[in-house]
Design goal:
single chain; alpha+beta; Ubiquitin-like (UB roll); DNA polymerase, domain 1; 2 domains; 6 helices; 5 strands; binds FE2/S2 (inorganic) cluster
């Protein structure tokens, strides 16, 4: 007999059709991590502020801690695990490694997913555009400069316009408070309001 406290949820995750039994008000974040075992997606704040839990839902970047599972019914979800190409890191992940754009790593899955969503959109990877793309993703460690450079390099490797461009002059991400390790909680990082417009 069906459990009235559970619901069947079918969705496509990283190209694979999955059906799980979940509580109706379960968060997509928990469906991914606990029901599907995709622990690459991280929980930071749990309230839509940090972007650590970012995934792509039907082509849009969302914070999965704010998405109720039922909202994902029938949807296509891409997590950080889905960014691998034939099981190998692609240009984006390699660029993060090459630039030292990950330190503690808690923000990295969300950063990669946000960057992937941006690069897939095909917009020129100017410094400003990249910073806007990751505006909802907070990093306590890197100061953002290496992350922006990595995304621009990945754009170049993937053939996108603007890829490989230097980080724009005077863009004081670091100087505005995000520099260095332990650079605060991400507030005052010069990236603008976090998660603007992101569910
Ligand atoms: S854990 Fe979802 S935005 Fe922070
Ligand atoms: S690498 Fe530590 S929070 Fe970004």
């Amino acid at each position: 007999m069906p459990d009235p406290a559970r619901m069947e949820l079918s969705l496509t995750v990283n190209g694979e059709r999955r059906t799980v039994s979940v509580a109706p008000m379960a968060r997509l974040l928990d469906v991914l991590r606990e029901a599907l075992g995709l622990t690459g997606t991280k929980e930071g704040c749990g309230e839509g502020e940090c972007g650590a839990c970012a995934v792509i839902l039907d082509g849009e970047l969302v914070n999965s801690c704010l998405v109720v599972a039922a909202q994902a019914r029938g949807a296509a979800v891409t997590t950080v695990e889905g960014l691998l190409a034939d099981g190998e890191p692609g240009a984006l992940q390699r660029a993060f490694v090459a630039h030292g754009a990950a330190q503690c790593g808690i923000c990295t899955p969300g950063m990669l997913v946000a960057a992937r969503c941006f690069l897939d959109g095909g917009a020129p990877a100017t410094g400003e555009a990249v910073r806007e793309a990751i505006a909802g993703n907070l990093c306590r460690c890197t100061g953002y400069v290496k992350i922006v450079e990595a995304i621009q390099d990945a754009a170049g490797m993937e053939g996108g316009a603007g890829g490989g461009a230097a980080v724009p002059e005077g863009r004081a991400l670091a100087a505005s408070g995000g520099a260095g390790s332990g650079g605060g909680s991400g507030g005052g990082d010069g990236l603008g309001p976090p998660a603007a417009g992101r569910p």
